[in-house]
Amino acid sequence: MTGTxxxxxxxxxxxxxGGQGSRLRPYTDDRPKPMVExxxxxxxxxxxxxxxxxxxxxxxxxxxxGHLAGVLQDWLASAELPLRVTTVVEPEPLGxxxxxxxxxxxxxxxxxxxxATNGDIWTRFSLREMAAFHHERDAVATLALxxxxxxxxxxxxxxxxxxxxxxxxPPSPYLINAGVYxxxxxxxxxxxxxxxxxxxxxxxxxxxxxxAGFPLPQGAYWRAIDTAKDLTEAARELRxxxx
Length: 243
Description:
InterPro entries: Mannose-1P_guanyltransferase, NTP_transferase_dom, Nucleotide-diphossugar_trans
Helix content: 25-40%
Largest sheet: 7 strands, mixed
Protein name: Nucleotidyltransferase family protein
Radius of gyration: 19 Å
Pfam families: NTP_transferase (PF00483)
Mean pLDDT: 85
Domain Nucleotidyl transferase: 13-238
Order of helices and strands: EHEHEHEEHEEEEHHEEH
Shape: globular
Number of strands: 11
Structural class: alpha/beta
Strand order of the largest sheet: 3-2-1-4-9-6-10
Organism: Streptomyces stramineus
Low-confidence stretches: 1-5
């Protein structure tokens, strides 16, 4: 792939792990959302994330904590981790963009590109390919794009209203933000001190054609862990993968 070797691949990442996870209760009554274990693995979501980041060449991660931060910090302090981890806690709620900027201030190399991921995403794909894609498009920011399955069965009809077929959980016709990013060093300065970058920074970059979207490769595993049903599905898919 053009530019893959010339481009300094990111070796640092921010993990946004401050969410309350109210839809995952009772699992999140005593722990933050990224500390919820995928059933059958014995490892919390963030453990899977950090292993993935390390496998993709990341040596330093900044974990932004919030809700029940101490539980997450205690686990990180006691776990055998495959990379260096620093934790930060916002002094007050800064919003998603402000929180990202606050965490990025603790990255070891502010003059180099970096990855970011939401703390409730469980996925596997090549971050190196995404970084090369980002570089080739001269983007300031690149977001991974997923095509989730619709949770309902779809009904296909013809122009006369006859039912032709039933399709169980079809792929969505729309791509969504998969919650994984590559950012150039210059992106940090464009983030708001507080507020949501998806309503300020991203639209501005999109207008300037400096925001890129990297579709997840065919067959890549991706799941957002939002509800107890997602946990059950993830465990079932994991059993399918290892069966």
